[in-house]
Fold each of these.
Amino acid sequence: MTFPYPQNPTDWQTAYTRDDAYRSFGKYARHFENVFFGGVVIIAGFIAIRSFPVVAQLISRYLGKLAMLPRVSVSILITFLLAFLVAYVGLQMIRSKAFGFAKLFFTDFYLPPESVEPGRVIQYRLYGKFKLPPPFTMFIQFKYIMAKDGGFARADQWPVWMARTLGGPLILIVFDGCALYVERGNRFSRIIGPGDKVPFLEWYETVKYVVDLRPKVHEAKFDAWTKDGIKIEIKARIECRIGDPKKKDPEGKLVFPYDPIAVKQAVERYALRWPTCPEGEPSEFTWIDAAWGQVTGIVPGYIGSRMLDDLFIANRNGGQILSPDAVQDIFTKLNSATNGFGVYVTDFQVLETILPEAVEKHQKEYWMAEKQSVAKIADGRTKAFRIREQEEARADAQYDMILELAKGLNKNQNGRFVEPILLSFARVLDQSLQDPLMRAYLAKETLDTLEQLQEILGHRLENNDDGNSTAQIGSAIKTIRD
């Protein structure tokens, strides 16, 4: 075959064109017709030679009076025409019978569905289409198939079955969000995707897969074990797609990016999953299953490296399974694992975590007790802070009052109301200096001065000494004020 195996992905879309289809398609019909008519001529000549004496005798008997016609030439011509007619009818009957046997063999060998007519398939592939000059080309067109929404439109018609089983030539109309994985002789041939260039399916090419390029969502449950040996049932959801979503179509005509290399890598990730029971049927392991397999490997690994409390209690080694940091960490690891086969994870969520009933009950009781303990500690700190603020405010007030009393005594020049003021002052000092918070609040120098002032006031009230005591009080007041 002249069809080249295209190594360059940029050549995959137009590696086989309409002109190639006309050229390769017509030659099979020409070969067939040449062989057929050659056989007719050979058989007709053999019959003409064998039957020429009889035909010549009949001609001379009935056409003997026609002197203008050469009898020998007329005899040969009529003999050959009769022989050709007999040979053609005979071979045509044989060909019709052979065509019937071909349809029976085709049906027994390929087992096509009831909607497929073997005769139409054989005639289409055998006779093909002949290229006519414009505008007559519109009357002779190739069959076409349409790929959209992850499958073929009109999938029950024979062109789709032929594309999957036998090959082309067929026009491939690929809509946005789809791509075709094409094989040739059970070997990868090329990837055909959407675009303005109309691709053709070659004679020996078959469509192996119709790949959906739209984002896919997979949601399921799986089990994982923590570092301390507790089983957790995880329900997660993953959204992924083939090809990097950041790569946009440069022409802006495609909604879903199309990357032929990524499609090839994703499809070649397909495998066959054998059943676990003898009665089961093997199933296909697709690229979505491969992406989900990374989830069931990475998430249990993350959970298995942490204790149960680390997964659900905040500020516990930073490992909460539902925290944004944990989800982002798993998301990054998933993309690192799936990008190797052309799949990109666009979203990952942990929807639900289910613990064993006994473990959940015990953990709830433990977490509730720990929560109450934390709440009590916080409440005690709040009360202590409130008391401290109140006492500090009272100490500030007493301190300001002492200063004001001291200023009043200093201004009292004539000694009026000295005794009542001194008595009140002494009581305030007694009460203030007995308060531990007040003693802790005042500076050491101020505290020593107030204690001296207390002794002086007490001595004066007992001895009623106005001389030295007044001078000492003034000095102490000046110290407090400074």
Amino acid sequence: MRMNGHNVLAIAVAAIAFYAIEFLIFAVAISPEQYQALTGYGSGDMSRMPFGAIPPILAAIGLSLAIKWRAKPGWMAGLMTGVFMGLCFAFATSFYGFVYGPNTAGFLAVDLAHYLICYGVAGAILGAWK
């Protein structure tokens, strides 16, 4: 199904892949204690967890727009678009937590890898389905 030239199924699959990779990184590979030590944040209120699905959906929609505007088909072009978007926008935004907040340099490295992988995979999915 296409909507305004975007493949809705591809966006959904990219968002699910993005979310699954985040789960693997932040819930499986890193323990809550490690996460707390890297970010400086406490365990917090878990009632906001359902809202965690919103960022991957918005990222997949944004990537779909960028890939469409770039007008280069294929998974490799999508992957490169995703990597650049992850670095220049997502990682740049997360850098604020290091500069002005409690995030450590170690978390910054984890977040960089997280964004490069998530955006790259989502971009490759969207580029392949273009």
